[in-house]
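Our collaborator T.R. sent over the components below with a one-line note: 'Predict the complex.' Nothing else. No constraints on interfaces, no templates requested, no preferences about which chain binds where. So this is a plain run: every listed entity goes in together, and whatever single assembly comes back becomes the starting point for the next discussion.
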Amino acid sequence: MDGGRRRDRQSALTLVAEQRPDEGRALAFCGHCGRRPQRGFRAHARVCESCGLGLILRCSAQDAPPVDGAFLVLDARLRVCAVSRRAEQLLAVSETDVVDRHLSALLVPAEAQAASGESLAVAIVQAAGGDRVTRTAVVRPANTFGVRINARIASCGPRPAALIVLEL
Amino acid sequence: MRYLKTSEAAALLNVSPNTLRAWERRFGFPKPQRSPGKHRLFTHGEVAALRDALQEGLSISSAVSRAREGLAADTSSLIGALVSYERERADAAIEAALALRSVDRSVEEVLLPTLDEIARRYTLESAPWAFAAHWAADWLRRATRLAPPPVRPVSIVVGDASRDELDPDAPHIRAFELFCVRAGIKVLSLSARGVAGIGDAVALHRPNLIVVAGGYLPDDAVARWAYATRLAAGAMPIAVYRRTGQRTRVRSTGTSVLPPGAGEARQRLLELIDASQLARTLTDSPAAAGEADSDRPGMRSASF
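Returned assembly:
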């Protein structure tokens, strides 16, 4: 009887599509420095123990920003919720000055992508709504021309938000 | 008002005390007061507001922003009550502010900014300003009456050179007096118009320092009052508070200028009094004991 159940379970498992090791796994990271919480991190604590200046966010492992990477977090109204330390340096802003401001104060679609400005907004809104599809866009700093930055847009949480990782 | 030590506030927020100090440097929030021993004291309301904002926040900046918005709501509700001429609602609004802050911070962060905003929006000749200024003067006097009795062996005389309670400096002067009383200082507030009999008042009060506050009365009127006061009490330090152009007009070498903020002015005043008491200690030393005695030995050489 037990052997039959085990066989059934094994056959059911083989029906699940093969996944990459990280795919679908949630990963925690600091919204300021991008570091991963160390083992023993108190699950109920939300503040990064490394830098003390960011909250612990979660996203799927393949969408997670690199440690000390440049990334932003936006809500569904395209308002800036968090700016990483590296993004602060890259965009020459301070998180405390730009939080709650519209994305367009920081990033706009790059010139070649101008027609897709709406799609950038749509991608962010969908990611902020919890859509798990990862999208890409080409953007530039709002006050700078001639710079193109590849951006990866994905969903993060715990409160659904859009994570924009600037790939340098 | 409930206060938390750094360790208690950090425990409530589930962070380390170092992190809390880092937030104070980066975000200026939560903003602690200082105990007499210079230790940080956080108001429970601010810490609790931040804790709630952190639960759902995506960054500390946004959580701080939300917590600040929640606290700023007190100013908006007080403005709304005052421009609607609703005394009870204004009382309730300031009570709500007091639930989250100390009296001093409620005055500095809610009451005075509210008055400044009403003066800016409606001008000083408006009915809303008249109502708001009267309500504020009344509230500040009530708060002063409810303050604990003086505990420091320090007293000051405030010469009020403002016009009346509609003078924009008047609420700041009342706030300054309130802060001094709350710091344990004995305060005698008199109009700088009243020169006759000032000698008796000063002799009874025996001030350590005289403050001339407000910029309405002309220099000669203020100088007459200050002269009469010093004639009765002897040479003693004089400080000026919220007197426009005070640096250029006051010629006395013993005059100090207090910062315009009531809290900062109170702090500077305490420093001046400490300095004068230090000077008294030095002049009371055995080497100086042979010098002529006076009614208030501490004041005879105090100058700034």
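Summary for T.R.: Strands of chain B lie at 3-5, 33-34, 40-43, 155-160, 186-191, 209-213, 238-241, 255-257.
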